[in-house]
Amino acid sequence: MQEATFLILTALASGSQHGYAIITEVTEISGGRVRLRAGTLYTALDRLRADGLVAVEREEIVDGRLRRYYRLTDHGAVALRAEAARLQANASAALARLRLAGGMA
């Protein structure tokens, strides 16, 4: 799973959000390392919807513009949980090897 996908799903794990809120949340979660552009986000959301990982929860008009709220699906939560476990296992393995090698861990 690409980092941006992981971060988008992580942002939606706490509840439904609209696009700008997802962009803001991803920046916060990543400590400012990842700053999604709107085009990148909506391309990713379209792909995630097609894959059944996110769904549109509702739409509303705000200041004359459509605001779409996305939510994590059950399938998306399973995929996010699996990826988080995989990343955690990899990080644990790296830290253990660093300890064995006398590195800083």
Automatic annotation (TrEMBL):
Residues covered by the Transcription regulator PadR N-terminal domain: 8-81
SUPFAM superfamilies: Winged helix' DNA-binding domain (SSF46785)
One Pfam family, short name: PadR
Ranges in a coiled coil: none
Record protein name field: PadR family transcriptional regulator
Organism name: Trebonia kvetii
Taxonomic lineage of the native organism: Bacteria, Bacillati, Actinomycetota, Actinomycetes, Streptosporangiales
